[in-house]
Design brief:
The protein has 262 residues and is mostly helical. It has twelve helices and no strands. It has one domain.
Length: 262
Amino acid sequence: MSLMAKHFEAFLHYRPLLEQLVSKDIKLKYRRSFLGYLWSILNPLLIMAIMMLVFSNMFRFDIANYPVYLIIGQTIFNFVSESTNQAMWSITGNAALMKKTYVPKYIFTLSRVTSGFINMVFALGAMLIVFIICRVRFTLNMLFIPVILLQVYVFALGLGLFLAQGTVFFRDIQYIYSAFLTAWMYATPIFYPINQLPFRLMWLIKHFNPLYAYITQFRTIVLEGVFPDERLILYGVVMSAIMLGIGSFAFVKTQDKFILYI
């Protein structure tokens, strides 16, 4: 218990640094951009419009409120993809600072995932616009949405920690993960209904793709207006905890060797 308290005290001590790193990441993303933070709303809308035109015409899916269905999956997947890609280089990208002074190394990974999460919160503005245009019925069940987003954040943080420590030792992870993300995107029902897949593939996605759980929870609340299945919520929470545990364990076990490879 004293060890947990010690780590928490260290986190509070370096919290101002975390806030500065998150602020820097967000400002750098929109630096020299004419529309600035407005792009966090416009970009998801533009991508959604393009994907909707392509997929709704190429594949005649019978999905009610397809723009809403699409932007929910797109927003959650984009957050995981963007935040973990940024987290992957969080240690190697701050090598100069780590060589000069002591800083808890997880702070850099945490800042990248947190800045990605804040960008996703901005993107919820685009989602809200789509909800209003498509006349989504707002219910009290939507108060559960922050819990869903927290599940996704914890999962992305765990994956980010795992990738960050791995990239220090094996730079080739960037190429492997890029290919993995492409496969992951198509294995996640972002722009197609899962019931269009063969039964065996559908079973694998439902049981081994955590993003399916997070996206389905979100869609159930918004599109159906009901509370998600408790088993789906439990699965999402457990997968987030497992990923955070794996990422944290791998990070802590290897962090003392980072200085030798960065």
